[in-house]
Amino acid sequence: MNPSSLPVSTDRLVARLEALGRVGALEGGGVCRLALTKADGEGRDLVVGWMKELGLDVVVDGIGNLFGTRAGSRPGPSVMIGSHIDTVATGGLYDGNLGVLAGLEVIAALNDAGIVTEHPVTVAAFTNEEGARFQPDMLGSLVHVGGLPLEEALATKAVDGAVLADELAAIGYAGEASIGGIEAAAYFEYHIEQGPVLEAEAIEIGVVEGVQGISWTELTLTGRSSHAGTTPMRLRRDAGLAAARIAAEVAGLAREIGGDVVATVGSVKLTPNLVNVVAARAVMTVDLRHPDEGILRVVEARFAEIVDRVAAEEKVEVARRTLARFEPVAFAPALVDRVEAVAKRQGRSTRRMFSGAGHDAQMLARVAPAAMIFVPSVGGLSHNVREFTAHADLGNGLSVLAELVLERAGHANVDAAASRGAV
Amino acid sequence: MNPSSLPVSTDRLVARLEALGRVGALEGGGVCRLALTKADGEGRDLVVGWMKELGLDVVVDGIGNLFGTRAGSRPGPSVMIGSHIDTVATGGLYDGNLGVLAGLEVIAALNDAGIVTEHPVTVAAFTNEEGARFQPDMLGSLVHVGGLPLEEALATKAVDGAVLADELAAIGYAGEASIGGIEAAAYFEYHIEQGPVLEAEAIEIGVVEGVQGISWTELTLTGRSSHAGTTPMRLRRDAGLAAARIAAEVAGLAREIGGDVVATVGSVKLTPNLVNVVAARAVMTVDLRHPDEGILRVVEARFAEIVDRVAAEEKVEVARRTLARFEPVAFAPALVDRVEAVAKRQGRSTRRMFSGAGHDAQMLARVAPAAMIFVPSVGGLSHNVREFTAHADLGNGLSVLAELVLERAGHANVDAAASRGAV
Questions:
Q1: Which of A320, A348, B266, B288 is placed for a possible disulfide with A343 were both Cys, Cβ 3.0 to 4.6 Å?
Q2: Residue A197, min C-alpha distance to chain B (Å)
Q3: Chain A residues near residue B291 by CB distance under 8 angstroms
């Protein structure tokens, strides 16, 4: 056995993914385990059971975050492996679950190899990462790092009207451990990419440098309804045309700036939305993202210019509303370098990239060096019952995670372990 | 009295417009007199009553078209003044009604002046011009000119499920006169513009050269749904972006070709229509119109090229469906020239133009020389409860119509009438 590697089992990881995927399983595939529902409670029970089987010390904090800790040779902050097990309403088996269950597999392998690490190793499952039932998303990790007061978080109302504190108590996960009580010396999150880049470029491991900044704007364009047959082009105030031009130009802007800029007009609603009536009103959303705050601001400024110019040219009024604005998060460069180095040493092809979606890691990055490992998502699908990552890819990421954790946690009994595994 | 003019009364015309507007009146203004409803029946009763008061010979044909004829000094085809009295669900007082009631005012003025015309003069109100309740629109005039067999028309189902023949009988307008029995030597239709051009250019009379050709296409664009944050621009198949680019380019095409080309994307529906999801599907309509069939075909061909190019560039599939296609109609040039000459002689400012909307005149043009007179619509509004045309404008069109009818019908007793009116 290579002293820096661990005998992790991809089969065991997949078996746990499949077992957890049966909790809240949807007919025809996929899973619905919305945060703090009965299904989420059952999923937590399964994970806690596994943690206990593996000998971990399990604690639950006041917002329901689960921590299972394997002691090190000395006390202190843990090397933490985390993610979440809640899903969207039509989710898959991998998003979130992979990060938690890969953590358990690393623990299992440490146990199998009889390794004592210097630092403790903790597997964490954070509450309500998806934000599908309670807003904001990444709520549990946000509370964990002190970004949202516990009382405020507990008072959050679900989209179905339920209060978070009540739902937490109902499933038995209103824990007593203090918020932030378990400190991380480093935080690793292993996740499927949820996008198509790794698959499209046939890359095995995504080395995640950070999380993109997000800027969401809703535009309401008001023109004048008129007859499509009798109103000459020059006398129109066509809100639908203004919306179309803005959507086309914003995409052109993203393509012109290039790199990691993404711009999406995913929602457009015209009024009255009839074949022969020039639209009086258009409500559209514009989603802009970039990993660099400076560039995101440039994109936002150029976008604002496009809106002003098109609105003036088409003689429509514009009302703007910011729906969301998050600055980019950069992961710890030294840790990111190690993800890349370890993956390469293991023979994997790698690519540095930014996460386009939010993850608990971006919250943990506020209090500890954090990094993420991505593996390919077939077809780029996620938040989708057809979400899938191949066995070999799951194994690649698992091996990288295991080596990183061992490297970071330190081998207290390296010689003993090595000798037991040696030929 | 000028021998070529008639003492028409705009006040009397407006009083009839207002009286008819009270039948099916909506709270807060406007009128709902959908074809062959009880309200339409009551409106017809009012018009038939006026026709009889004016001494007209009233006949109703098999599709419910109303004809009120004032005899001439010799038999033969009539000079026909026509339009319709059905409205859309939220209509105004002018669209259609003006043409019929102005016809009655011309009759009243002929009666007042004691004029005997050579040709008969007929006022016609055609069934279901709007097409709001039964498809196709202009159904009564289409049947009148032999464009749709009576039996087929009678079997038409309303959007509310009712059969046309039953509804016609229910309101007492299943007439016995033979279809096309009253022939037109010439057909005049006096109508509000329903568009903003005359008002915008401060022109009093629109000299209508014909009706635009209409081409309606529904496009269904199919791309691939993907995550707005994790899917790079180059890996997208964004149906919403393809729709926006097509809409923007089609408007650009209309502006580039210029003249009377109008292009409208009035309806767009994205799926799933969410802020952070690249749209998988877009269904959009494209309404193209031009008075010249050759140019309309060029526009259609260029539109098809835009769709093909954008679809290829955005990697989306396209399905096309033709929703409507009507060739342009040209009115009789000699009659159009007379409209212009008479209006100018009366001191009116004029503008030649094409109708962007359909009118009964385009059906009558198949069997007789036809022409239309337009007057301004305030704000270009029509098919709208706020539809309005000023008293002076109503009078301008009425005077032009009266002179044209008298000119075309011929004065059998010109000297007597002139002497009675002379100072």
A1: A348
A2: 7
A3: none
Residue B210's pLDDT band (boundaries 50, 70, 90)? Answer: very high
Shortest CA gap A217–chain B (Å):
9
Residues linked to residue B411 through DSSP beta bridges, in sequence order: B117
| Digit-coded pLDDT (tens) for A142-200 | 999 999 999 999 999 998 999 999 999 999 999 999 999 999 999 999 999 999 999 99
Cis bond leading into A75, ω under 30°? no
User: How many CA atoms, within 13 angstroms, populate the side-chain half-sphere of residue A43?
Assistant: 33
Domains in chain A, please, with CATH? 10-211+328-421 (3.40.630.10), 213-326 (3.30.70.360)
Chain B residue closest in CA terms to A255: B233
CA distance A218 to chain B (A): 9
A139 in Cβ contact with A156 (< 8 Å): yes
- What is the pTM (predicted TM-score) of this model? 0.83
How far CA A37 is from CA of A51, A93, A126, A151, in Å, comes to 21, 17, 15, 20
The angle that helices B391-409 and B97-113 make with each other, rounded to 10 degrees, is 60
- A-chain residue closest to B379, CA distance: A226
- Partner residue opposite A264 with nearest CB, options B196, B262, B278: B278
**Binary contact (A231, B266; C-beta < 8 A):** no
Helix (H) / strand (E) containing A242:
helix A239-257
Pair B273, B248: CB distance under 8 Å: no
